[in-house]
Design brief:
Distance between the termini: 44 Å
Radius of gyration: 20 Å
Order of helices and strands: EEEEEEHEHEHHHHEHEHEEHH
């Protein structure tokens, strides 16, 4: 299926033609990743509407992907300052890619992102803390919990300067915030999954970010650790931080998030948990997956 849609020149490819693709771009019902002919297709040059003062993040028509195929297709949404927003969707739907793109760790193919009015780059990077998926970290690396958190200060002091007393104090303060100060000298690989996740949240917090992005922060951790992590994030939100997190746990979505972005390469729905956690929207997001949402309140 090829064509021009809404003035946006794409080469769309039927799901059957993508059967050999692997990785983040595999076909997920009901949407499928599509290929762009990006030669000569620069980032949008038309001026965008000025970002509202209340917006922490404004994402406008972004496309991004890997090896010539797009995982994100014209994604548009905004997050207000101080909101706690969740991203849900099936594996391969673009959740991690979206977070990395907002963090400035993955390039855009088209569209625009503004973070507190700034495009992703050095200035915006200082405002953002990013926590990757646990499975993407080499836990055998011989480094202590304190050293992991101290690495978060390098964005402020530079790679070639020694951390000073202020940086070390900030690292210990961040560990205290997540309840891990007593494990500062432990090797990171010796911690439980929930403890490791809290350490990486501390590494992000030590940067004193205004926006915190977390990719599956509760994956593989027990219920007690899940509650501790979300309680910590809610505390940071109440202190004025904007938080965006991806998750597969829909019960946590119902309990903790202000708004939910349902993503399957494109935005399926965006609204409060009460607005989007229904059979119709979830079927559109997950395709043939059958899901049951427990009754839960904040």
């Amino acid at each position: 299926m090829k064509g021009r849609e809404e003035g946006h020149d794409h080469t769309h490819v039927a799901p059957s033609e993508l059967s050999a693709l692997t990785g983040d771009g595999h076909a997920v019902a009901p949407a499928a990743p599509h290929l762009h002919e990006h030669a000569g297709h620069a980032l949008a040059k038309a001026p965008v509407a000025q970002q509202r003062a209340a917006e922490a993040v404004a994402v406008t028509g972004i496309c991004a992907g890997y090896f010539g195929r797009d995982v994100l297709d014209r994604v548009t949404f905004s997050v207000d300052v101080g909101e706690f927003v969740g991203i849900i969707g099936p594996n391969g739907s673009g959740k991690s890619t979206l977070l990395k793109t907002i963090a400035g760790l993955h390039p855009l193919q088209c569209g625009e992102i503004r973070i507190f009015g700034l495009r992703p780059g050095a200035a915006a990077h200082r405002l953002v803390g990013y926590v990757p998926q646990v499975e993407s970290v080499n836990w055998s690396f011989p480094v202590t919990v304190f050293d992991v958190v101290l690495m978060g200060r390098f964005g402020n002091i530079g790679l070639f300067r020694r951390p000073g007393r202020e940086d070390r104090s900030a690292a210990m303060a961040a560990l205290a915030q997540v309840g891990m100060a007593d494990r500062a000298d432990s090797q990171i690989g010796r911690l439980s999954g929930g403890q490791q996740q809290r350490v990486f949240i501390a590494r992000a917090l030590v940067q004193d970010p205004k926006l915190l992005l977390l990719d599956e922060p509760i994956a593989g951790v027990d219920a007690t650790s899940q509650h501790a992590i979300f309680t910590l994030l809610e505390e940071r939100q109440r202190a004025g931080m904007t938080v965006i997190a991806s998750t597969h746990d829909l019960s946590c979505v119902a309990m903790w998030f202000d708004r939910v972005l349902c993503l399957n390469h494109r935005v399926v729905a965006y609204g409060t948990p009460g607005e989007v956690l229904n059979d119709e929207t979830l079927s559109s997001t997950y395709g043939s997956h059958m899901l049951t949402i427990p009754q839960a309140g904040r």
